[in-house]
Amino acid sequence: MSMGRLWRDNTMITTVKQYGEIRTGTNYLRALIQRNYPDIHVLSYILGGKHAPPIPFGVLWAEAQQAGGDAAFNFVSTATYSQRGGASHPKDPTQQEELTRRAPQIAKAYTTGALGFLVTIKDPYAWVVSAARFNGWIRGDEPLRDWSIELMREACLGYNRNYRAWLSFLREHPQRARLVRYEELLADPERVMTEIAAQFDWQRSGGFEAITAVVEPTQWDHLPVIETPDTFRPEFYANNEYLQRIPAEQMQQIGELMDWDLLSELGYARR
Length: 271
What we know:
The structure is a single chain. This protein is an alpha/beta fold. 47% of the residues lie in helices and 11% in strands. Helix 2 (57-67) crosses helix 3 and helix 3 crosses helix 4. The longest helix has 24 residues, at 149-172. It is globular.
């Protein structure tokens, strides 16, 4: 689903801020952008944690200008740490150096309309399994356990809250924001990336380069993408293998907990 542009201008998106729940393909998307569009700056933790709702950029920019001093750094630093991701630490000297170096370019992108936004989403049933694995509720191929139902309940409610906020944000910025469905990205990454590039006015100099390896989580914005020696299995999602990890009781719980009015608008349905 694309929150297509209401109008088109001549501003190329030079910087993209990522959003999306954990395990929805944010790292994979970042890796694809960096490999195929290396001139584009991807922000994961800078300007706020990627797994958290957007912050009020307009308010923070106005405050940064009024505060005196380096408005660009004040804006970028405040935005980064006021809604910080788990890996962001205000007293980390390496992060401070990175913010100092990148603040002028990021502030310019924001003030000129060259800052874009990408929100990733995964089918809620598949996402529950991915989140359970990530959080250690299950290991390997084992199914969800009864003891994890309350944890799953809280996670599902948080999923609803976050995507309500992100969808509202997409509607506010239709010309420079896009929703990326994980299933579509896996099925045809070249097509999805070509559509993003067309919306954001990106140019790819060569042929499309796919990524077949498992991509490690992003540690912070200044660190490179790390691909593991393992080959990723898209069949786990394409063939709905994840459903084998969800017992009947948890299937019912997910069906009752998720906001299907919201999710139907994003292309998902209750099973």
